[in-house]
Amino acid sequence: MAHVIVTGNEKGGSGKSTTAMHLFAAIARQGFRVGAMDLDLRQTTFFRYLENREAFARRTGQDLSLPERIGLQPSTLRDRVEAEAEEERWFTQAIATLDASCEFILIDCPGADSFYSQMAHASADTLITPINDSLVDFDLLARMDPETGRVLGPSIYSEMVWQARRLRAGAGLKPVDWVVLRNRMSHIDARNKRKVGDALEHLARRIGYRLVPGFSERVIFREMFLNGLTLLDLRDQGFAFSMSHVAARQEIRDLVRALNLPGMAE
Amino acid sequence: MAHVIVTGNEKGGSGKSTTAMHLFAAIARQGFRVGAMDLDLRQTTFFRYLENREAFARRTGQDLSLPERIGLQPSTLRDRVEAEAEEERWFTQAIATLDASCEFILIDCPGADSFYSQMAHASADTLITPINDSLVDFDLLARMDPETGRVLGPSIYSEMVWQARRLRAGAGLKPVDWVVLRNRMSHIDARNKRKVGDALEHLARRIGYRLVPGFSERVIFREMFLNGLTLLDLRDQGFAFSMSHVAARQEIRDLVRALNLPGMAE
Ligand SMILES: Nc1ncnc2c1ncn2[C@@H]1O[C@H](COP(=O)(O)OP(=O)(O)OP(=O)(O)O)[C@@H](O)[C@H]1O
Ligand SMILES: Nc1ncnc2c1ncn2[C@@H]1O[C@H](COP(=O)(O)OP(=O)(O)OP(=O)(O)O)[C@@H](O)[C@H]1O
Ligand SMILES: [Mg+2]
Ligand SMILES: [Mg+2]
Fold it and tell me: Per residue in A207-225, pLDDT tens?
């Protein structure tokens, strides 16, 4: 049974695709067979990153790790209920296919509440929600009282996860491990950072996720997109590491360790 | 005839809602009557920012500028074609209502290709596309050759804008003024910044937008979300300005000037 990891957050630009790509690199480096699905059917950022990687490998004659990918189409049926039934079949088939040959399946979700995204959230053994260090992003997890800072109640993305958990429980599957990580953290902005950090810690207990070490804002996390490379590939590519790269690599290691994935070192 | 300004970018987290809010504050300060629509029907970040502003004004007994808001519902009809026809009616009614009483209409779009978003793009007199300083974000505007840096062709969001332009031309409306602005710019990362900047300048001529001054990454653009305030409100609130605030205010001024909006000073 492959372990399904989903990157999800209805909030756009929180770092789902970036996290999916770097997790893929980390897991593949340990020799595991990884399957991948990209449910952001129009942008396909995660699959674009992987296509770029494949093209770079071909161009340079190198042997870079790649996942087994299955792309999905949106249903074109006019009736909404029939369209969802069709998508449910396609999604289930894709998971079954990857499950047969992979130890991990990485599914990147769109910044939207699509039906495929809902299916992925219910299929996740590990659900990873990256979030910007921002009260604007936080607003999709929970409403906060502007005067006291107290959490007033869950917001639309928390509710979406809750629905997925109910579906999962109804199907008799073990509970999802929901982890939230802060992304694009600044080294400054101490006050806003602490405010968001405290809010995320309090909310963790209330809505049932755990907070894990995340990523700083570092251009190394995005500047090699066109070649499909991550900083984990750099040593093999013969690059010298800067201090920022060493710190970035530690951030990835800390995340992987905190995820407690089955069979993984660190 | 109200001047319609749309913040659009299918890429999530590019800064559409942040730009919409700060533009609202800048336009309202000049005494214009502003209408607003938020087409991100689930997240409604722009409307949440405005609700927070309204609540803050009530709490503190202040008189803060607010736009005339019209919220839309998604159609619940099961047939896709009928649902779009219904949404088209609701959208057109909302625009007509705001047009009757406002000089500017601000429409914030979701990070997705929804039908309402397509209608907004065709209705825009000014279309503002914020974008992160990132080749990952750039990928939704155009494909780039990883070796030469040349633009290979338009990508899904450019195509969406092109479709909207055709609809607009077919309706006999004057051409949209499409402006792109860089958002969340870092003061460092010189090489990646130049690479993305050059790419955006070359693409401007090819797909028909103009590049305008954008925003740096500054926590002031997001830390007052819970009170619905922007830095433009701070002087009235009795705050002292830091160097970063002065620079941020200049960024907003430079953007407003570059937009060449009808009837506006600066
Ligand atoms: N830790 C980081 N450091 C630097 N840049 C980052 C980091 N994480 C993400 N980015 C950049 O931020 C932007 C958004 O990231 P990404 O595309 O991974 O988010 P997403 O949640 O997948 O967005 P969407 O909702 O559109 O799918 C991209 O330009 C990406 O390159
Ligand atoms: N110039 C800026 N400086 C600091 N933070 C910013 C800036 N612009 C945007 N942000 C933050 O970046 C995140 C994304 O911004 P925003 O929500 O405005 O983007 P969006 O395009 O509306 O996203 P979505 O696609 O989800 O609608 C938010 O956390 C916001 O507070
Ligand atoms: Mg993504
Ligand atoms: Mg938004």
Answer: 999 999 999 999 999 999 9
